[in-house]
Write a structure and sequence with these properties.
The complex is a heterodimer of chains A (101) and B (162). Chain A has a single domain, classed as Orthogonal Bundle (Helix Hairpins), CATH 1.10.287. In chain A, helix 1 packs antiparallel against helix 2 and helix 2 runs antiparallel to helix 3. Chain A has 101 residues and is mostly helical. The longest helix of chain A has 30 residues. Chain A is elongated and about 50 Å long. Chain A has three helices and no strands. With 162 residues, chain B is mostly helical. The chains are: A mainly alpha (101), B mainly alpha (162). Chains A and B meet through helix 1, helix 2 and helix 3 of A and helix 1, helix 2, helix 3, helix 4 and helix 5 of B.
């Protein structure tokens, strides 16, 4: 089955735009992290598509590393969310003004 | 499948209930895994299902249930600046689209890739991962170790001392 790589890149662009919108517009920290996951998925999609297009394996390897980094990011990010929530309940970014000078 | 993934991503960032949003993101991940399969990246599809849909999303759902966000429904789920955010997202998407049109990659379908034997199987990925990519692989393991330690330190309850 032949998938045109332009369609894959277009889908990746649309998904990345949705992720950016979600990250900027949501007020809940957990949903902002989810939007980051959507963006990382878009990048993985374009990597896999280009890897298929150039008949290279490096893109898929890079996508694997992106998944590993996403897992690390989720671990640290959710640890931060739990630590913040212990101090002050509520997961909205508007509540987090403690670092404001 | 592409339309379904776009629709589920849109629903994921706009739903009010965080749990519904998580479920839409789960469908998005599964559709992206299907697209990986279409692209001949079988191992990547398997990793997508197992790691993303299996591990990361379960982690998210655990935290959502743990935190028990009661006031999410009451408050406005978007900030005041959400039209600006939508504009920025549209700009990013348009930029990526333009770059796609400009590279000249778009018109040529994957002709040469369709002829050869399918790459992206488990053996090819494994040979590449432990051959020329051994050092980045070890660095990824080190990064995951650092993330584990960091998460435990962050989420640990403060000790009784000072």
């Amino acid at each position: 089955m032949i998938v045109p790589v332009g369609a894959v890149l277009g889908l990746s662009a649309v998904l990345f735009g949705i992720g950016v919108f979600g990250f900027l517009a949501r007020r809940n920290i957990i949903l902002m992290l989810i939007s980051i996951e959507v963006m990382l998925n878009a990048v993985n999609l374009s990597l896999a598509g280009l890897s298929r297009h150039f008949d290279e394996l490096r893109g898929q390897i890079l996508a694997l590393f992106v998944i590993a980094v996403a897992a690390a990011e989720v671990g640290v990010g959710l640890g931060l969310v739990i630590a913040l929530n212990r101090n002050k309940p509520g997961a909205g970014v508007a509540d987090l003004t403690k670092l404001k000078w | 499948m592409a339309a379904a993934s776009v629709a589920s991503a849109l629903l994921a960032v706009t739903r009010k209930n965080p749990v519904h949003s998580m479920l839409w993101v789960l469908t998005l991940f599964l559709h992206v895994a299907g697209i990986f399969l279409l692209l001949g990246a079988e191992f990547l599809a398997a990793v997508q299902v197992i790691v993303y849909a299996g591990a990361i999303l379960i982690f998210y759902i655990f935290v959502v249930m743990l935190l028990d966000l009661p006031d999410e429904e009451a408050r406005p789920r978007f900030g005041k600046h959400w039209p600006l955010a939508a504009a920025v997202g549209l700009c990013f998407a348009a930029l990526a689209w333009l770059v796609r049109a400009g590279t000249g990659v778009a018109p040529a379908a994957t002709r040469l890739a369709a002829e050869g034997p399918p790459r992206g199987g488990l053996s090819a990925i494994g040979m590449a991962l432990f051959g020329p990519f051994a050092l980045p692989f070890e660095m990824a393991s080190l990064l995951l170790l650092a993330a584990i330690v960091g998460a435990v330190v962050l989420a640990r309850r403060r000790a009784a001392g000072p």
